[in-house]
Amino acid sequence: MDLTISWLYGTKMNIYGDRGNVLALAQRARWRGIAVRTVEVGLGEPLPPESDVFFFGGGQDQEQVAVSRDLQGAKGDALKQAIADGAGMLAVCGGYQLLGQEYRPHDAAPLPGIGLFDLVTEAGAERFIGNVVVETDLPFGELVGFENHSGLTHLGPTATPLGRVRVGRGNNGQDGTEGAVLGNAIGCYLHGALLPKNPALADWLLLAGLRRRHGDVALPPLDDTAELAAHATAVDRAVRTR
Amino acid sequence: MTTAPMSRLAARPDLRLGAALAAAKLTSVGIRRLGRGGGTAAPGFVADRIDPALLGKLAARLDRGAVVVAGTNGKTTVSRMLADVLEADGSRVVHNRSGSNLVRGVAAAFADRASLAGDPRGDVGVIETDEAAFPEIVRRVAPRLVLLNNLFRDQLDRYGELNAIAGHWRGALAALPPEATVVVNADDPTLAAVTEGIAARRVTFGLDNIDARYRLATLPHAADAATCRRCGHDLAYDALYVSHLGAWRCPNCGAARPTLDVVGRDVDLRGVEALALTVAPGPGAVPRGGDGSAGGGVRLEVGVPGLYNAYNALATAAAAASLGVPDATVAGALGAFQAPFGRIERVAFRGRTLTLALVKNPTGFNEVLRMLTAADGTLTVPTLLAINDLAADGRDVSWLWDVDFELLADGDVPLATAGLRGADMANRLKYAGVATDRIRPLPADPRAALEAFVATVPEGATAYVLPTYTALLELRRALADLGAVETFWRQ
């Protein structure tokens, strides 16, 4: 069995160790004997048609502008089509914002997103920085990560939040929601990196990608002692430092 | 040499300054009586409330002016190196040596040293600054020379993104007058950009002619300034040394590393012990004339390891030359240099030798790993990685995922993890491909972890201990309690 991970904009959109998510997806597939290919998709480069799972991280302002422009038109449409077909997607922070309708900065023109999620993000006055614990009703359960954003994300009527914030601020600090989910695509503000210490979410994304191309496959369980210890420690630190 | 605007003798009594100094000194004495080490900023806080201009007033009374040292990594080492060099040159140096590098910590160091009458009791200031405090300290101190060593991705929860810091620095540097000097690491494309076209005199330094085995083949994951500041295109490197530092150029718009005024070359790295390099005037240098030092340059032998310390020595030598210090004095002082607290130190403990090296951000961690693995390609002695997530460490441990721990996947020595986020560290090692039977999670408590770790190290052997800042403080305290080392603030 093989799997292609498409890392949107690679290191250009990696400012909080988010590449750990790509490492987690690749290693957890490899440990199960799956042949993994990781493709960095840069500015001006088309999406590999065989993409099974996407990762889309956050960048600094200057990079966000270039990436927003790059996703308008055919590339963004192809990305939405792949997700409609059932590909897995994790988008974090800036990547999450650009999967929404648009990002509205304080003092510049709005940056258009691709409108996968029905949400809008506006620049806020306060920066939300700290550990986050999110409760979800999805198979991977509780998530733990670290948020660092000033964007306030407001979900529209057709968007589904990823979960409810138990510790931290989440989408906007007001409504108690964090992230968004649509099919096998997840957007959120959780750095950490997220997937290495939330292994059930990593496997959920892998399974989505594998099933889309290889039919009804199962993932053999792994020894997640280290992952679950990191998860438990992070939750404990989140509760103590809230 | 420039003269300070107000000489000490001409200073009129300044009642507000005197009151601030008296209060600061009392606070400082009080803290020491209570036996609280390390808390070196409180006197500065007190002084600042009484006379916010204290720092500027004292700095203005330094005959040789003040030097401000900034950079994500190496600023403590460089400011100590430079202070040693200036002392060897016969100056009395006012220096925030404890490493307390926010505005109040600097004010505290100056107040501690000054007389009640406002005499700074020094000829020259060497001020280490935190990246976030840099613009404010430069504004207050009006330095004669600013030394910029590098700008790397650091604690994003505290400092924000690199571009934001660069923007703040640019503002402070652009406001410096023409008589000030900015000594800048031109191998750093961000620093080259923020010093371009400033009114102050710019002196550039960088490395050249470095042995291929000390260069990097590709940009590390931690690097994030590898795009052209002018046109946004990815930069190309004719030689890459540390993170995004190197001989850079833009293939698209032609921007490139500025001509070097001071060049470091022929670097010789001697394991975890020492290094040597030659520092010489570069193609952009203004001939110094008269002292016979221009041309061949000076060979520096320094008892600190790794290419990152070659940059630190080079930065010091470039600043010292700009301040008129003879090459022989620089070489002598650096030859006798002792590494500061935790940067790299060896501690004898229960018949073992522990080599401690502070790790605080991705580039720093990468460079420490590079230095420790240089001889054998991987680690060959047991190593303890102690990761905390308190404010001074960075509360976000995401940065561990930008460190290239894949370097440690080969080999068979155990890698122990400890600290409040030891579990994250252990997990990171697992995903780096380190065999799980080599990863030894130890108790989060530093003393328990230290004892458990040392028990796994054979007697007479060496082990490495790589802690984040507060983990280092805790481990030093545990070692001190067990009789191994002194506490640092008395230095």
TrEMBL record, chain A:
One of its GO terms (molecular function) is transferase activity. InterPro entries: Class_I_gatase-like, CobQ_GATase1, GATase_3, Lipid_II_synth_GatD. Substrate binds at R127. SUPFAM superfamilies: Class I glutamine amidotransferase-like (SSF52317). The active site is at C93, H191. One of its GO terms (biological process) is regulation of cell shape. Residues 4-198 form the CobB/CobQ-like glutamine amidotransferase domain. It catalyses: L-glutamine + H2O = L-glutamate + NH4(+); beta-D-GlcNAc-(1->4)-Mur2Ac(oyl-L-Ala-gamma-D-Glu-L-Lys-D-Ala-D-Ala)-di-trans,octa-cis-undecaprenyl diphosphate + L-glutamine + ATP + H2O = beta-D-GlcNAc-(1->4)-Mur2Ac(oyl-L-Ala-D-isoglutaminyl-L-Lys-D-Ala-D-Ala)-di-trans,octa-cis-undecaprenyl diphosphate + L-glutamate + ADP + phosphate + H(+). Its EC number is 6.3.5.13, 3.5.1.2. Pathway: Cofactor biosynthesis; adenosylcobalamin biosynthesis; Cell wall biogenesis; peptidoglycan biosynthesis. Keywords: Cell shape, Cell wall biogenesis/degradation, Cobalamin biosynthesis, Glutamine amidotransferase, Hydrolase, Ligase, Peptidoglycan synthesis, Transferase. The lipid II isoglutaminyl synthase complex catalyzes the formation of alpha-D-isoglutamine in the cell wall lipid II stem peptide. The GatD subunit catalyzes the hydrolysis of glutamine to glutamate and ammonia. The resulting ammonia molecule is channeled to the active site of MurT. Forms a heterodimer with MurT. PANTHER family: DETHIOBIOTIN SYNTHETASE, LIPID II ISOGLUTAMINYL SYNTHASE (GLUTAMINE-HYDROLYZING) SUBUNIT GATD. Belongs to the CobB/CobQ family. GatD subfamily. This is Lipid II isoglutaminyl synthase (glutamine-hydrolyzing) subunit GatD. It comes from uncultured Thermomicrobiales bacterium.
Automatic annotation (TrEMBL), chain B:
Pathway: Cell wall biogenesis; peptidoglycan biosynthesis. Forms a heterodimer with GatD. It is an enzyme of class 6 (ligase). Belongs to the MurCDEF family. MurT subfamily. It catalyses: beta-D-GlcNAc-(1->4)-Mur2Ac(oyl-L-Ala-gamma-D-O-P-Glu-L-Lys-D-Ala-D-Ala)-di-trans,octa-cis-undecaprenyl diphosphate + NH4(+) = beta-D-GlcNAc-(1->4)-Mur2Ac(oyl-L-Ala-D-isoglutaminyl-L-Lys-D-Ala-D-Ala)-di-trans,octa-cis-undecaprenyl diphosphate + phosphate + H(+); beta-D-GlcNAc-(1->4)-Mur2Ac(oyl-L-Ala-gamma-D-Glu-L-Lys-D-Ala-D-Ala)-di-trans,octa-cis-undecaprenyl diphosphate + ATP = beta-D-GlcNAc-(1->4)-Mur2Ac(oyl-L-Ala-gamma-D-O-P-Glu-L-Lys-D-Ala-D-Ala)-di-trans,octa-cis-undecaprenyl diphosphate + ADP; beta-D-GlcNAc-(1->4)-Mur2Ac(oyl-L-Ala-gamma-D-Glu-L-Lys-D-Ala-D-Ala)-di-trans,octa-cis-undecaprenyl diphosphate + L-glutamine + ATP + H2O = beta-D-GlcNAc-(1->4)-Mur2Ac(oyl-L-Ala-D-isoglutaminyl-L-Lys-D-Ala-D-Ala)-di-trans,octa-cis-undecaprenyl diphosphate + L-glutamate + ADP + phosphate + H(+). Residues 358-472 form the Lipid II isoglutaminyl synthase (glutamine-hydrolyzing) subunit MurT C-terminal domain. It comes from uncultured Thermomicrobiales bacterium. It holds the Pfam family Mur_ligase_M. This is Lipid II isoglutaminyl synthase (glutamine-hydrolyzing) subunit MurT. The active site is at D396. Zn(2+) binds at C228, C231, C250, C253. GO terms for molecular function: acid-amino acid ligase activity; ATP binding; carbon-nitrogen ligase activity on lipid II; transferase activity; zinc ion binding. Keywords: ATP-binding, Cell shape, Cell wall biogenesis/degradation, Ligase, Metal-binding, Nucleotide-binding, Peptidoglycan synthesis, Transferase, Zinc. GO terms for biological process: cell wall organization; peptidoglycan biosynthetic process; regulation of cell shape. Its EC number is 6.3.5.13. Residues 69-218 form the Mur ligase central domain. The lipid II isoglutaminyl synthase complex catalyzes the formation of alpha-D-isoglutamine in the cell wall lipid II stem peptide. The MurT subunit catalyzes the ATP-dependent amidation of D-glutamate residue of lipid II, converting it to an isoglutamine residue.
